[in-house]
UniProtKB/TrEMBL annotation:
<dbReference type="GO" id="GO:0004497">
    <property type="term" value="F:monooxygenase activity"/>
</dbReference>
<keyword id="KW-0503">Monooxygenase</keyword>
<keyword id="KW-0560">Oxidoreductase</keyword>
<feature type="domain" description="ABM">
    <location>
        <begin position="4"/>
        <end position="92"/>
    </location>
</feature>
<protein>
    <submittedName>
        <fullName>Quinol monooxygenase</fullName>
        <ecNumber>1.-.-.-</ecNumber>
    </submittedName>
</protein>
<dbReference type="Pfam" id="PF03992">
    <property type="entry name" value="ABM"/>
</dbReference>
<dbReference type="InterPro" id="IPR007138">
    <property type="entry name" value="ABM_dom"/>
</dbReference>
<dbReference type="InterPro" id="IPR011008">
    <property type="entry name" value="Dimeric_a/b-barrel"/>
</dbReference>
Length: 101
């Protein structure tokens, strides 16, 4: 199995960037205790506070999928959904670099 990485670009409804970022930070906190999650960083665009990026690294795609199916993650997704105007997921296969093992 190979590691799984993903960049998620979330476009919040106008003026809802802080609220959406807060929910995504809750997801990051949940991921601390999830087996297979190696990195989950929430970033906000310097040009647009309603654009939030999430950088993720998982042991494999199955660990990521299991996290999304988790009851607690599903509750966060339900809270976030009305705040989201659009999502652009970018799935990646990491090759190496600093911090990657």
């Amino acid at each position: 199995m190979s590691k799984f990485a993903m960049y998620g670009k979330f476009k919040a409804q106008p003026g809802q960037g802080d609220a959406l970022a807060g929910i995504l930070l809750e997801a990051a906190e949940q991921s601390e205790s999830v087996a297979g999650c190696e990195l989950y960083i929430v970033n906000v665009s310097e040009e647009d506070s309603d654009t939030i990026w999430v950088t993720e690294l998982w042991s494999d795609a199955e660990a990521h999928d299991a996290f999304l199916r988790n009851e607690d993650a599903q509750a966060l997704i339900g809270r976030a959904r009305p705040l989201i105007a659009g999502v652009e997921p970018v799935k990646l296969r990491p090759l190496g670099g600093k911090g990657f093992r």
